[in-house]
Amino acid sequence: MIAEVVFYIAFYIIGVVLGSFFTLAIYRIPLKQDILYKRSYCPKCGNKLKSKDLIPILSYLFLKGKCRYCNEKISARYIIIEFFSGLFYLLFVLSLKIDIFSFNVIKIVQLIYGTLIISSFFIIGGIEKETKQLSTGTVIFGIIANIFYMIYLYILGNNIYRYIIYLIIIVTIYILGKILNTQRKIYDISILILFSIIATNEIIFIMSTIVTLFMCFISYFLHKKIINYMFYFSFLNILFIIVFNFVTIM
Ligand SMILES: [Zn+2]
């Protein structure tokens, strides 16, 4: 019993750390800054943060939400994102029916692949919200993860021709977008849609699309403006990955 609780708390903490990394990536990728080696700093005064300032959630509480050096208020958004990342990651682990007794190679591969795909959607959605642009680099990262997963499925004897066709279409659209360089948005949407299909599956893609269109319709009806649909579409993919796993994985 205690071992199980520790097991799940560990996954909650992994989720919190991932959430903390995602917020950093969403901030830095559009600025073309390094996301792995560059030390975190205060965006106001530029002072580098100490290790004890980098503990997700806890550091924020210790520092009472202010920078140690310049007293600038740190947005509560960070702590909220970290808290919910932990919660959603734990839900994702539970949706894979992972527990301390069933932790085998198949589950581990599903866990790693799912984590990479959810990370991609999270960062794509976040950057889309901040800059209104598709982070092509993050999509490519997700596609590479997907290619490795397809190779794994192929070795296990699965038919992956369907994915190869989607992959060829996505590369074609990407190249066309680069060459023609007009109407970027249409190419961006197509790439994100195809990424959703290959990284998850048709059912998750359809559910995410229907809900996104529904939200667009409602927001247009109420406020006469269209919501940031690529942002919502990305996060709906994460939500439906978890729901789909809960329903289908035994
Ligand atoms: Zn500062």
Textual characterization of the structure:
With 250 residues, the protein is mainly α. The chain has 2 domains: 1-95, no CATH class; 102-250, no CATH class. The protein has helices at residues 2-28, 58-62, 77-95, 105-131, 136-155, 161-180, 184-199, 202-223, 229-248. α1 packs across α3 (77-95), α1 runs parallel beside α4 and α3 packs parallel to α9. The model has no long low-confidence stretch (mean pLDDT 92).
Question: Which structural class do you get from the secondary structure elements?
Answer: mainly alpha
Counted by DSSP, the helix tally is 9
The helix/strand order is HHHHHHHHH
Total beta strands: 0
| Mean pLDDT level | 92
Instruction: State the share of residues found in helices, binned by percent.
Output: over 70%
Number of structurally distinct domains: 2
Based on CA atoms alone, the radius of gyration comes out at 20 Å
Distinct small molecules bound, one entry per kind: zinc ion
Percent of sequence in beta strands: under 5%
Which stretches of 5+ consecutive residues score pLDDT under 50?
none
Overall geometry comes to: globular
The largest pleated sheet is described as: none
- First-to-last CA distance: 22 Å
